[in-house]
Amino acid sequence: MTQARLDHLAATIGYRFTIVTNRPAACPAGAARCFESEIAITVPADGPITAPVEIRYGFVNRVLAVSSDVFEGRQVKGDVNALALKPGQTLRPGQVYHVRVTGVGAYFSRNHAMPNAMLVAPGLTPRVIAATRPGTDPDTGRETLPFVAPMTDEAALAGGTAKDRTMWRTPERAFALYAARGAATPVDVAILPTPVRASRPAGRPVDLAGGLRVTTTGIARDDIAAALASLPPGQGRVPLTIRQQSGLAAEGYRLTIGDGAIRIDAADAAGASHALRSLAQQIAAEGTTLRPLTVEDAPRFGFRGLLVDVARNFHSKPELLKLIDRMAAYKLNRLHLHLGDDEGWRLEIAGLPELTEIGGYRCADLTEATCLSPQLGADPARTAPTNGYLTARDYIDILRAAKARQIVVIPSFDMPGHSRAAIRSMEVRYDRLMKAGDRAGAERYRLVDPADTTRYLSIQNYDDNTLNVCLDSTYSFIDTVIDGVTTLHREAGAPLTTYHIGADETAGAWTGSPVCRAMLAQKNIPVGKLGAFFIERVAGDLAKRGIRVAGWSDGMGHTDPALMPADVQTNIWGGLHTGGVAEAHAQANRGWQVVLSIPDAGYFDMPYAADPNETGYDWATRGIDAFQAFGFMPGNLPANGALIPDNFARPTPVPDTVPIDPTRSIIGVQAQLWSETVRRDDQVDYMLFPRLLALAERGWAREAWEPPYVAGQSYALGDPRVDRAALLAEWRDFAGRVGVQLRTLDKAGVAYRLAPPGARITAGRLEANSEFPGTPIEYRKVGGAWRRYAGPIAATGAVDLRTRTADGRRASRIVTVRASEPSSVR
């Protein structure tokens, strides 16, 4: 095998991935749940393959078995698996070889397939198989995976087990769903999130055609400059008076429009900014002639957050800056930046250049001496958008942009698990300094005990992703990172107040570490307490710096509250049906600051709906559309069982086994966008919007349909204590407001998700509807020209439909409805 031959093979070999069934007759190795898939390899016609060539492919689920006459399989690292020729086997020209791969769990979306499989041969540079590269749909602008076969057999693929009642959201089911929710209310007050109070007093409208004349009292104009920039430009005749006013709740404001003037009374700069954003939204809806309006408003929660994961797949500084401005528009005030994980380290840290030189990139270097291995279908090209990091200057710019919009940035580097990027980077540093004869320098920041014989496997299939919590060098490393981040925040004028250590999903490490055995003997603690020991120590170190520790609830819950600082933030990520309610209440009862990051309503890396063509993991929920996020009740967590079924679409009750202390409360909500399947910036937009608007609503406004919390009460699907009629009424009002906001998102360059239309053909007539008002629907006879849908039309046979943005620039994916008669559309 030569490099030229390998390059040619990578360019010409065929590769097709098919999900066969989520309900096989039996699972190997005693697994309780599994699925079967197939990789079809088509050999080029210009010669056999006998050399030792491997196909390395991404497969997120753990592989249980590989069945093939010619290939044998093995796991490499993380989601990377390999197919190698069995001894004595030859791949013959022009032949198609089928490899059956059985995995743990279920496979519900064709978009879970990882692109950029590689050919690997000893001594040669690996090459991406061209057939596995992603493409781009010219109409939607979304990433496509041409090598993945369509998923069309609902009976075999929609559910993972016999007890799973999940059904795909077909156009017919979507039509019924949207019809049941009802038509959107015509928009009067367009402000989103919905204000606490809004009224239309009598008086003359305000004509803004001549521009605004801004004066401020008690609030520095520089502190609200970003919000002022959201208004129409120009210095004009209409007075806009902004003044600080005592007696208002934090971030609260009073906006008065009428009699030729606009007045804003605000508690603080944040309140003034929120008022200006509300004014901008009303202008977007009404134009420059505003009818009299009075708004009194303040947030329900002081913490209204968004997590963006740039570690698994990198996302650019311009994308983050765009998100910060959208966060401000919808009054979100915490940006949780996930900057370090197994697959990448994304922030430059002074004194530790290897973190970004190695940890910021995934490439085809199988030795990992110059980069990390290409996990999660990463393109190994150094310039690929999934590669990269934020320089110190980038991060400072992000901090300053956030501060100008009253948004606090919370940096996150997951530890002690989820730390493979840091570990590999520091091992490269260790090797470099050892070769230079600097043993002390090499060992200063080493994160592993080389004599550790522990064997473990993390949930993401890594056996080398956990820091050794018994090494002094581990804490030297963490101190250097924290000090480096603190310096960047100080330079930006945005002091570091909260640092998120992750602390979740730590595998069973350290049992075979001599260093840990010595420390355990000295401190007289069991090995099972080492994870808690790590969290308690780092939390204390942060507290000494005046920085609040934050972490994920599973790890934080293992600590001894008496050994933790008084000021602790915990993000609850347990599911509603899997213990998250008890966890939230128990940790609030510790006196900690509880932020609800509940996956069933806030994990926006989950799909919008149960559909094989939607993107996103589905371990927590088969779908979160804007309606489900809108209906979330953060003040009465068990009550969510009345609206949200379990992950098998069953009406499972949500109990309250650990009541919350009446003196304790939740401090806020946070949306999460983990990026394992999000490889492009436009996919960030797609996964976040428009459902982030619903989460922003829940962080700001209290629900009229939310019943008062009563300790010990449980709720099951359809429970009448949750007023569904009131929910639907407020949803219809919210949907009208979203219809206005979608036009604003278009102007801001946000590639939000366009839900495909609901549609049905009944008695020879095509009917269609959309999730939000003002979304144009188009239809065509399959293969014909697109037409604008204006109402029911005569149709038989098969009809394609899609929605389109109001500005006409983007379309949704296409759905098809069918009738039994020969196709015709009039």
TrEMBL record:
Keyword Hydrolase: yes
EC number(s) stated in the UniProt entry for this protein: 3.2.1.52
Domain Chitobiase/beta-hexosaminidases N-terminal stretches: 11-173
Enzyme category, top tier: hydrolase
InterPro entries: Beta_hexosaminidase_sua/sub, CBM2/CBM3_carb-bd_dom_sf, CBM2_carb-bd_dom_sf, CHB/HEX_N_dom, CHB_C_dom, GH, Glyco_hydro_20_cat, Hex-like_dom2
Catalytic activity entry: Hydrolysis of terminal non-reducing N-acetyl-D-hexosamine residues in N-acetyl-beta-D-hexosaminides
CDD domains membership: E_set_Chitobiase_C (cd02847)
Record Gene3D superfamilies: 2.60.40.290, Chitobiase/beta-hexosaminidase domain 2-like (3.30.379.10), Glycosidases (3.20.20.80), Immunoglobulins (2.60.40.10)
Keywords: Glycosidase, Hydrolase
PANTHER family: BETA-HEXOSAMINIDASE (PTHR22600), BETA-N-ACETYLHEXOSAMINIDASE (PTHR22600:SF57)
Name of the protein this chain belongs to: beta-N-acetylhexosaminidase
Source species of the chain: Sphingomonas mollis
